[in-house]
Amino acid sequence: MRRPLIAGNWKMNTTVEEAASLATAIAGGLQAGYAVDTVLCPPFISLYRVSETIRGTALKLGAQNMYFKDSGAFTGEISPLMLKSICQYVILGHSERRQIFGETDQLVNEKVRAAVAAGIIPIFCVGETLQENESGKTGEILTRQVSEGLKGVPSGKEVVIAYEPIWAIGTGRAADGTQAGQTIGLIRGVAAGILGQQAAGTARILYGGSVTAANIAEFVGEHQIDGALVGGASLKAGEFTDIVKQTASLKAKP
Ligand code: 13P
Fold first, then answer.
1. Residue 140 annotated in active site
2. Is the entire prediction scored with pTM above 0.85?
3. Nearest to 96 by CA among 120, 73, 64
């Protein structure tokens, strides 16, 4: 059994005050307790404040990026050493990092290895563009991203993978649940070749891309899909907590 996971990627949204209020509202909405690992990923500047806000709750904290060195002359970067005392998770290789900031498979791999070495669980993102999807290259692209990104990750280290088709991010055009389930099955197969059958079988693989309270059931209803990486809908406390609650009840069913 894989414990479901819902992560909210707040991207470059919320001031420190807004982040604290949003975290408070989410914590309030989930007070009853649900069998879902729930991770908030605010901007760097709000991490510490949100860590204080959610102290004593079941909520977990994640960063949205990280450099792979522990310290040094890397202006503007944040290290595993800085994150590890307050974050349990870190999103790595998000398509926005890859596309806008030029992150390569190799760089993402360095980051994934640094995160696991520091004891931070990476939420390692992969996904194809619309063009790659339409030209039938999805399998090839994902195989490359997963193999390159996870290369050299020692066995026994936890990794979360997020499948986020780029054409589904922020477009309101989510993938089809069944199709996403099949693609995630493929990703699990590729991961098995790198991490080993057992580690890939227990790794949580999430779907991301226009997830809302209205469509979450379609995704977490799939056996292969262990939860979601939520963007826009994670900025609304009521909707985000609804997504967590639906996931808890759907995944609790045999
Ligand atoms: P949206 O949910 O806004 O489509 O964003 C998805 C995403 O990129 C999460 O990392």
1. no
2. yes
3. 64
